[in-house]
Design a protein that fits this description.
Keywords (chain B): Metal-binding, Zinc, Zinc-finger
Number of strands of chain B: 14
Pfam families (chain A): UQ_con
CATH superfamily of chain A: Ubiquitin Conjugating Enzyme
InterPro entries (chain B): Znf-RING_euk, Znf_RING, Znf_RING/FYVE/PHD, Znf_RING_CS, Znf_TRAF
Protein name (chain A): UBC core domain-containing protein
CATH architecture of chain A: Roll
GO molecular function (chain B): zinc ion binding
Bound molecules: zinc ion
CATH class of one domain in chain B: Alpha Beta
Radius of gyration of chain B: 51 Å
Strand order of the largest sheet of chain A: 1-2-3-4
Oligomer: heterodimer
Distance between the termini of chain A: 33 Å
Number of strands of chain A: 4
Number of helices of chain A: 3
Order of helices and strands of chain B: HEEHEEHEEHEEEEHEEHEEHHHHHHHH
CATH class of chain A: Alpha Beta
Number of domains of chain A: 1
Distance between the termini of chain B: 116 Å
CATH topology of chain A: Ubiquitin Conjugating Enzyme
Helix content of chain B: 40-55%
Helix content of chain A: 10-25%
Shape of chain A: globular
Order of helices and strands of chain A: HEEEEHH
Largest sheet of chain B: 2 strands, antiparallel
Structural class of chain B: mainly alpha
Strand order of the largest sheet of chain B: 1-2
Chain lengths: 156, 542
C-alpha cells in the first residue's frame, strides 16, 4: 500500500512540476507526506489578485484510497491568510465534500483538488465565515476528514 | 527415444524447482512500482494508481476501467458478502465486480507489452523487458537477483551473475577500509558503502573518496561550472570552478559585487528604519488630528463640548440661577445632588446640604427616575428636571435654563434608541441561548422518555408475571385447600400468599404510576423551558 501511495505521488509530482493551471503553484514537496501549494484567485473582488493562499496537503500511506488532509495555512512570512468563505473556518479547515471520507474518490489528485478549491473561492459571493465558526475553532480537536460537517451545501 | 523423453522431463523438473526456489528468494514484484522505459498513452492509465492497467476490469454498469486490485482496495471499506461492490470512483454509478468484469485480451496484451526497467536496475541490471515478463526475468535470468549458492554444502545466497564463480561465502576484508565481510557482498560494499574506496569523478577525472563525494560534487570539483559571483547583479556567465578567477578578473559585475552587496545591505537597513519612522509619523499625525478636531468643535459649537469641559458652563451658569455662593463647592452640589430629587421645583434656589445623596453622574438610575425620562410632550414650565436628568445620565453639558430644549430631547431619544438596540441584541442572544437549551432539553427528554417507556413496559411485564404467578398459586391453593381446610391447618397460608401477591402487584403498580409521573415531570419541564423562552422574549421587547 505504502508503495502505491509513494509511486503515485511521485508521478503526480513529476506532472505538477511540469505544468499547472494558472493561479496554482507548488511551494514545497520535500517528502511524499506533506506538500504545500499556493493559490491565487482571479476575478473575484473578495480576494485581491495579488493575495496568495497556502494549502497544505497531508498524505496518509493509503493515499489515494484515502483522501489527503487539505487545509489552508496562515503564515506571516511570506504573508498568507485564511481566505474568507462560508465553507472555510478561521483555522483553515475546509468543508468541501470531495475531501471527506464520503465524497472522496481515488481518481482525484492534488491538481484536481487544488482546482476545485480555487473554483470554490472564485465562485464565492459571500465574504463571511461558516455559521458557528468561533465555536468550532475553539472546540474542534478532530482531524478534518473525521468531522461531520452539517453545512454541506451542494450549491457550492 | 524414451531416454530423451526422460531427460527432457528431468530438465523441466530441475528448471521448475530452481524457479520455485528462486521465487522464495526473490519476493514477487509489485508491478505498480516499475519504471517504464517510454511514456505510455494516458488512455492505458488506471485513474486510481496512474500506472498502465494491471489485470484491468471493466465495470459493466458504466464501462469505466480500473485495475482489479485498485478497485478492490477502493471498495474495501464497503465490503459486502456478495462480492466487491461500491460506487464507480470516476462517475459514482453503483457498480460491482462480476465474473465477466475482465476486459478484452487486447488491453491486457498492450499493457503487458510495455517495456519496463528491471526492478534490480539500481543494483546494476541494465535489462529492459516487457512488463508481462519481468517476474520471469527476475526469477530466471536477472544477474542481480539472488539464487542459492551452487556449492552443495552451502545454504547461502549469491547474485545469479556470481553463481558461476563457485561459493563466494568465505571471509575477506576490504582492502580500503579493512572491514571484514563475505566475498559475495564485497562488490556492493565497494559500490555504496565503503568510505575509503575511491571513485573517479566523471567531470574532472579525479579519484575521490566515497565519503568525500558529496562535498566534491557540490563544492570542490574544479570541472563543475558555477555562476559568476556577480550573477545577482546581472552577469549571466558560468564558468568552470577552476577558471572562475580568470572570469572574475575581467568581469565588471564580479568586481563591483562586494560594493554592491554592501550598498544593498545598507539600503535594506535604511528601509527598515524608514518604516519605523513612517509608523511614528502616522501616530503623531493621528494625535495631531485628534487635537485639531477637539479644538475646532469647541470653536464651532460651544454646546457640544466634551465631558471634561462640562464643568465650565456649570460653574458659570448655576450660581446665577441659585444665587448661592459659587465656586468649587457648588459644582460638587450640582454633580451629586440629582439623585435626591425627582421633581425639584424650579424655584428652589438653595438647598440644605444634608439632602445631598452621593450619586455620581452616569451611575445606574434609581427606578423612580426612569419615569420622567420617557419621551413625550413635556410641560414647558418644567425645564429643571430635564436638565437635571440629563446632567446625571451623560457627560453632556446642561443647557442654560432658558437655552434650546431641542438638543437634550434629541440626546435622550438617541440614548433611548441605543438602549433599544442593546436590548434587541440581548434578546437575540437570549433567544439563541434558549433555542440551544430547549434543543438540549428535548434531546435529553427524548432519551429519558425512551428509558421510562422501556421501564414501564418492563414493569407491566413484571406485573403480568406476578399476576399470573399469584393466580396460579391461588388456584393450586384452592384445589388442595378444600381437603386441607377440613384439617384446618392450611387456610391462612393460602390467604398469606394471596396477600403477598396482591402486595407485590400493588408495589409494581405504584412503580408504574411513579414512572408515569416522572414522564409527566419531564414533559412539564420541557413546557416550562418553552414558557420561559416566551416570557423572556416578551420582556425584551421594549
Ligand atoms: Zn490501478
Ligand atoms: Zn463509472
Ligand atoms: Zn534484471
Ligand atoms: Zn556459498
Ligand atoms: Zn571498504
Ligand atoms: Zn570532480
Ligand atoms: Zn561575470
Amino acid at each position: 500500500m505504502a508503495g502505491m501511495s509513494s509511486k503515485r505521488l511521485q508521478k503526480e509530482l513529476v506532472k505538477i512540476q511540469g505544468t499547472l493551471p494558472p493561479g496554482i503553484a507548488l511551494v514545497s514537496a520535500e517528502n511524499l507526506r506533506e506538500w504545500q501549494m499556493d493559490l491565487s484567485i482571479p476575478d473575484n473582488p473578495i480576494y485581491p489578485p495579488t493575495e496568495k493562499y497556502r494549502l497544505r496537503f497531508l498524505f496518509s500511506p493509503s493515499y489515494p484510497i484515502e483522501a489527503p488532509e487539505v487545509v489552508f495555512l496562515a503564515s506571516s512570512n511570506p504573508e498568507r491568510k485564511i481566505p474568507i468563505h462560508p465553507h472555510i473556518y478561521t483555522n483553515g479547515i475546509i468543508c468541501l465534500d470531495l475531501l471527506d471520507t464520503q465524497g472522496w474518490s481515488p481518481v482525484h489528485n492534488v491538481e484536481s483538488i487544488s482546482i476545485s478549491i480555487q473554483s470554490m473561492l472564485a465562485g464565492n459571493t459571500k465574504a463571511e465565515r461558516p455559521p458557528g465558526d468561533a465555536e468550532f475553532v475553539r472546540s474542534n480537536r478532530q482531524r478534518p476528514r473525521d468531522i461531520n460537517f452539517l453545512y454541506h451545501d451542494p450549491s457550492v | 527415444m524414451r531416454r530423451l523423453e526422460a531427460r527432457r522431463q528431468m530438465e523441466e523438473a530441475n528448471f521448475l524447482s530452481s524457479k520455485a526456489r528462486s521465487q522464495n528468494l526473490n519476493p514477487p514484484i509489485d508491478l505498480r512500482m516499475l519504471d517504464y522505459v517510454t511514456a505510455y498513452d494516458d488512455n492505458l492509465m488506471c485513474p486510481i494508481c496512474r500506472c498502465p492497467f494491471l489485470d484491468p476490469v471493466v465495470l459493466a454498469e458504466c464501462d469505466h476501467c480500473f485495475c482489479r486490485d485498485c478497485i478492490r482496495q477502493t471498495w474495501a471499506s464497503t465490503y459486502s458478502p456478495l462480492g466487491p461492490r461500491g460506487d464507480c470512483p470516476s462517475c459514482r454509478t453503483p457498480a460491482k465486480l462480476g465474473p465477466r468484469s475482465a476486459t478484452s485480451k487486447i488491453l491486457v496484451n498492450i499493457t503487458d507489452d510495455l517495456l519496463v526497467r528491471c526492478p534490480k536496475s539500481e543494483d546494476g541490471c541494465k535489462a529492459q523487458v516487457k512488463r508481462g515478463e519481468v517476474q520471469d526475468h527476475v526469477n530466471i535470468y536477472c544477474g542481480y537477483a539472488y539464487m542459492e549458492c551452487t556449492a552443495d554444502d552451502c545454504e547461502l545466497h549469491v547474485l545469479r551473475k556470481d553463481a558461476a564463480e563457485g561459493c563466494l561465502h568465505f571471509g575477506v576484508s576490504c582492502l580500503d577500509c579493512r572491514q571484514s565481510m563475505q566475498k559475495a557482498s564485497l562488490e556492493t560494499h565497494w559500490r555504496v558503502q565503503c568510505p575509503d574506496r575511491k571513485v573517479s569523478c566523471e567531470l574532472c577525472k579525479e579519484a575521490v573518496f566515497n565519503r568525500e563525494w558529496d562535498t566534491h560534487s557540490r563544492e570542490t570539483c574544479p570541472a563543475i561550472s558555477i555562476p559568476c559571483p556577480g550573477k545577482v547583479f546581472g552577469c549571466n556567465s558560468r564558468s568552470k570552478r577552476s577558471q572562475a578567477d580568470v572570469h572574475a578578473k575581467s568581469c565588471t559585475f564580479a568586481k563591483l559585487t562586494p560594493m554592491l552587496t554592501a550598498m544593498q545591505q545598507r539600503m535594506d537597513e535604511q528601509e527598515a528604519a524608514q518604516k519605523v519612522m513612517v509608523r511614528k509619523l502616522e501616530v503623531l499625525e493621528g494625535g495631531f488630528q485628534a487635537v485639531q478636531t477637539i479644538l475646532s468643535t469647541k470653536q464651532e459649537d460651544p454646546d457640544q463640548v466634551g465631558a471634561d469641559e462640562s464643568r465650565i458652563p456649570l460653574l458659570t451658569g448655576r450660581p446665577h440661577q441659585r444665587g448661592d455662593s459659587g465656586g468649587m463647592l457648588d459644582a460638587m452640589v450640582v454633580e451629586t445632588d440629582v439623585g435626591a430629587f425627582v421633581f425639584p421645583p424650579p424655584s428652589s434656589s438653595s438647598r440644605p446640604s444634608s439632602e445631598l445623596v452621593h450619586v455620581r453622574a452616569g451611575a445606574s438610575l434609581p427606578p423612580l427616575y426612569s419615569a420622567p425620562m420617557a419621551p413625550g410632550p413635556r410641560p414647558a414650565d418644567l425645564p429643571e428636571p430635564f436638565t437635571m436628568d440629563f446632567d446625571m445620565a451623560s457627560p453632556f453639558p446642561p443647557p442654560a435654563a432658558n437655552g434650546p430644549y431641542i438638543s437634550p430631547l434629541h440626546h435622550l431619544l438617541s440614548m433611548h434608541e441605543s438602549l433599544r438596540d442593546e436590548m434587541s441584541r440581548m434578546s437575540a442572544a437570549l433567544q439563541e441561548l434558549d433555542g440551544r437549551q430547549s434543543m438540549q432539553a428535548l434531546n435529553e427528554n427524548l432519551r429519558t422518555r425512551e428509558e421510562i417507556s422501556y421501564m414501564a413496559a418492563q414493569v407491566a411485564g413484571l406485573s403480568r408475571q406476578v399476576h399470573w404467578l399469584t393466580s396460579a398459586q391461588l388456584q393450586r391453593q384452592q384445589h388442595g385447600g378444600a381437603g386441607r381446610q377440613a384439617a384446618g391447618a392450611a387456610g391462612p397460608s393460602g390467604s398469606d400468599i394471596a396477600g403477598a401477591g396482591a402486595g407485590v402487584e400493588a408495589a409494581v403498580s405504584t412503580a408504574a404510576s411513579a414512572l408515569r409521573g416522572a414522564a409527566r415531570i419531564v414533559n412539564a419541564g420541557q413546557g416550562m423551558t418553552m414558557r420561559r423562552g416566551l416570557s423572556e422574549e416578551g420582556r425584551t421587547k421594549l
